[in-house]
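In the current project phase, the collection of sequences with tokenised folds has grown. One resulting record follows, to show the layout:
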Amino acid sequence: MSWFSKMNKTEIALFILTLIVFFITTVARIIDQNDFNLFWFYIIVYLITFIIVTIGSIIIHYIPYIPRTISAVIGSIFIIMILGLHILPSIALTSFAVGIAYYWKCITSESFKRHDKFNIIKSLVLISTLSLFVFLSVYLFKNGFYNNLPNIGDRNTTIDSLVNLSDDDDKKYEVQKFTYGSGKDKYRSEFSSDANIITNSIDGSAFINNWYGFPGWYRTKYWGFDATKLPLNGYVWMPKGHGVFPIVLIVHGDHAMQDYSEKGYGYIAELLAKKGYIVVSVDQNYLNRSWSDLLLTSPLTGDHKARGWLLLEHLKLWRQWNKDNTTFLYNKVDMNHISLIGHSRGGEAVAIAAALNNLNNFPDNPSIEFDYKFGIKSVISIAPTDGNYQPLGKKFIELNNVNYLLLQGSHDGEMGYVGIGQYSRTFLQKDIDKLKTSIYIFGANHSQFNTSWGSNDHEFFHPFSTKWDYHLLLSDKKQREIAKNSMLAFLELTIKGKERYRPLLNNPMSYNSGVICLSQHQKASDNIIFEFENGNTDFITTNHVTFKNEKLAHGANALKLEWQKQLDHNKDKNWVSFEIPSAPIIESQKLRFDLSNGTDLPIDFTIQIFDENGEKISFLLSRSGKILPSRFKRALKKADNLSSNITSEIAFETFSFDLSNIKKEVPINSIKFIFDKNKSGIIYVDNLGFEYTKRP
């Protein structure tokens, strides 16, 4: 206590402050990760940090002209930042404690009372302390620092063939639920004593690295198994009644492994099961991170490919049960119509599973033979990771001839829009009826797609939910409503062939009133002439417009166009022309391309199409019923507003125009964009070509 008794009021205030912040953040982390062992772990972290800071303060104290209090202030700011708060509120919080301590000294010290000049100091300290209190109150409790909604311009809000999903006349099934599992789960009876089907464990050691050392020991101690005995656990929602039903596997992403994630997609499973799908939510929590991985060493590596491989092993179980006439699942499953849904790391895992599915051997170890070849028709990735598994030196996973849906939120504080890379690397063979779609949802974040993850992205490293600006964030209910409607429409179209659901994917704003959604989509039958992936720009000519083939994310490219001045429309114009190979115009053909805006103003422009005879047709972009909306600027964190770090992402929307009034069988020579409606602008163009409402 002699050390404590030598501390002045300021140092005592700072010490108490850091203890309070420590306990608040530790409790937040314990709640997030559902493990009280975390408390002792962070006690050690705090003590080590405090010792380091104390030593630093002592060193600073012996540097001439630096007061001891300054070293304590610097140390406290450092500790509070380590515990998760941004530098600006950390400084404010520490300064607030200093102000309280000095004000207390001002009103209690006899020397201060005897001198009138200290009244000025007391007043200044009081004013600054109150100002800091106001700032902290606003920062911690106010949302809506950045209130500007993107200007989406004029666009249609209804579609003639709009489907009301809740009032669909399709048959609705009653749903039965059951589970299967190892029978040995230490924490969940539904995978042990209450499991309806007991499954064998499998050896995943060839797919997972880093299950050793202290993190590996704790992981094994917690779960009761290691990488050689991975369980196959799943929750099942199945339609009651006779029939063979398509099957959907859903897999979660990375979250605190003690806070089980697989139940968080019940809202999707219930809807799909009522519509006639068998739905399985797969347990992979044992591959997720824990406090034991943080600060001490790295978490598991290779888990991305393990997550994908485990999905295929689950499908093996279903193939066996479907063939076994002694089980209640005999002939219940349509193994030719399989869909995979994944969120976060699970969103990458489903792409990996689809890529591994048709291989005869594991690419990283050819001695491991595969016998899968399942009928995986559709893959849905929700806010996925990307590029973490690189088979045989390939930089990224490629998908071929599967239907692909990407769902991404603009306010994703975990990943950002990296999933557009997998979208661009999904290739559709023209003679196979497949499609790919990306839906970008303004106001959706990363975590709310799972009902148990809450609204706080980055729960491991930043437990302060007050760091996020929630003003423009969609409610968790609305975000999940959009997600389940989009997924249902996609599966009903791609698995059951119900064409009336296509408009909901092409124009998701039509059934999500008040929510801004951009849809980028492409069918296998589309004739994409310019993908801008190979860097070739010989076919482009411009007038006062600069262009650049720009890399976006993980293998995605687009053409960036920029113009900077308004020209005399009677003499000169800003334009870009795309010279295309001769292609006959046939009945039901449309012009199509993907656009993204790089400015803060909506953009409209004139489109001209020239045939080989020099005849042309002109129309405005807005003829499609919408103009190009301004870029979606957003501040994810309150601190972004303080530092003016207002960002945006390049999110595309598909535009299409009916060309049935152009002469048939006359080849098109070129397409020109004339930027005559905006004085300046930046746009990104991708996938320029033609689509067919009927196959040629």
Observations:
- The chain has a mean pLDDT of 85.
- The first strand starts at residue 175 and ends at 181.
- The chain has 15 helices and 25 strands.
- The two ends are 87 Å apart (CA to CA).
